[in-house]
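Customer escalation, tier 2.

The customer says the design service returned an amino acid string that "doesn't look like it belongs to this structure." They asked us to rerun it and document both sides in this ticket. The original structure tokens are below, unchanged.
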């Protein structure tokens, strides 16, 4: 989904602030908030104590807790997002979560090594991502920057296409269409894209959702006219753009930014926010566990005893 180093979180716990813990009970602190050892052990089935979990696994789980505690703290400071860890908030999120998120949660639930508490904190983590992405999409600086520098990405298109293996076949398709054959019928007859029934692509989508040459074509082609053959790594396409819309002002963009901003654009700001959040966090790990090492965004083991 996201390839930056900070977002490979897997299972993580959220808002695990403990008061009055002795130093032996605290595995790490993030901006002064304690991550108790019980929170780390609570991720794994059968993790009765630190010795019952492989040292590398323990450090990995703790690193994930550190990542998420950093994000929760920053989400409240930067966007005023609070109460993300409550049962009510989780229930509300699950009622609206998308299919990809539901599938990911099923994979966590089906993992026999993970506890119910682990599932709950993953729900919170996914909810955090949703809320922060929406907050970033509505940020005035983000919208102003996109409007000034990347206005061409603010577009919704509805399009259909016929995909064939060669340029010669594409010209044959174009000839059939020019003589009045229906694109849906031609697509059903010869198109290699069997997932797009009648050649119709999901609607609406941002041009940025498509591969390079196809993206350029749907962004620039006259509406209602067939394109010349367009080559991509999948083959050759004849494309028909049925409609294309974009916001006419920054104010219109700000009224519904999630509609207009491509997911890839929001993801880029989300990635940058995560990188900045973890870099600015004050992170300390208990010395017998290891040392937080920013160059790898993880915990390195303590030096062996002499």
């Amino acid at each position: 989904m996201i390839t930056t180093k900070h977002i490979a979180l897997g299972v993580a716990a959220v808002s695990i602030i403990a008061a009055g813990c002795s130093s032996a009970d605290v595995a790490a602190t993030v901006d002064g908030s304690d991550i108790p050892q019980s929170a780390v052990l609570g991720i794994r089935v059968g993790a009765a104590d630190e010795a019952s979990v492989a040292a590398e696994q323990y450090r990995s789980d703790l690193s994930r807790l550190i990542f998420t505690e950093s994000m929760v703290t920053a989400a409240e400071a930067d966007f005023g997002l609070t109460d993300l860890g409550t049962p009510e908030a989780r229930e509300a999120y699950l009622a609206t979560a998308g299919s990809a998120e539901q599938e990911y949660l099923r994979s966590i639930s089906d993992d026999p090594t993970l506890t119910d508490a682990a599932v709950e904190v993953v729900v919170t983590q996914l909810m955090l991502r949703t809320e922060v992405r929406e907050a970033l999409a509505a940020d005035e600086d983000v919208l102003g920057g996109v409007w000034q520098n990347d206005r061409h990405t603010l577009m919704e298109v509805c399009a259909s296409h016929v995909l064939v293996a060669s340029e010669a076949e594409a010209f044959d398709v174009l000839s059939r269409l020019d003589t009045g054959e229906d694109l849906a019928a031609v697509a059903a007859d010869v198109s290699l894209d069997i997932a797009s029934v009648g050649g119709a692509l999901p609607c609406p989508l941002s041009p940025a959702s498509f591969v390079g040459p196809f993206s350029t074509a749907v962004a620039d082609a006259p509406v209602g006219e067939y394109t010349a053959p367009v080559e991509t790594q999948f083959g050759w396409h004849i494309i028909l753009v049925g409609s294309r819309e974009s916001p006419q002002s920054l104010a219109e963009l700000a009224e519904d930014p999630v509609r207009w901003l491509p997911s890839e654009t929001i993801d880029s700001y989300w990635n940058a926010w995560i990188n900045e959040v973890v870099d600015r966090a004050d992170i300390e790990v208990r010395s017998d566990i290891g040392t937080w090492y920013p160059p790898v965004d993880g915990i390195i083991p303590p030096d062996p005893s002499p």
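Tier 2 assessment: The sequence is consistent with the input. The domain at 155-245 is CATH 3.10.50.40 (Chitinase A; domain 3). The longest helix spans residues 55-79. Sent an explanation to the customer and offered a walkthrough call.
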